[in-house]
Design a protein that fits this description.
4-stranded antiparallel β-sheet, alpha+beta
Length: 104
């Protein structure tokens, strides 16, 4: 699911993951791999159901093969930094290297 994109989101009043009386979010994702796009439109679709109470996921996929066949996906996903991580890295850059010594 590295190159998947959400194309449909629904919320349900009762959970299908744990059969509880709380909300569940269902997302449908389609394959957006550049490798598959070169071979035609990919028919792979995932359905993920997320239980909001227990933070559990149930993921299903259809039986359609990728249009790229058995080739691995060559898309490199960039690392994503959250805002607190960027702030911490910036602060560390401003401090500069520090020499730590200990008295043994």
């Amino acid at each position: 699911m590295c190159c998947a994109a959400v194309f449909n989101t629904r919320q349900f009043a009762w959970c299908r993951v744990c059969a509880g009386g709380h909300t569940m979010v269902e997302r449908r994702l389609s394959c957006k791999s550049k490798t598959c796009a070169e071979c035609g439109e990919c028919a792979v679709i995932w359905k993920s159901q997320h239980c909001t109470a227990s933070d559990k996921w149930w993921i299903k996929v259809n039986t359609s093969p990728h249009s790229r066949g058995a080739l691995p996906c060559t898309t490199v996903i960039p690392a994503r930094l959250a805002k607190p991580m960027k702030t911490f890295i910036t602060q560390q850059d401003e401090i500069g290297p520090v020499l730590y010594t200990s008295m043994l």
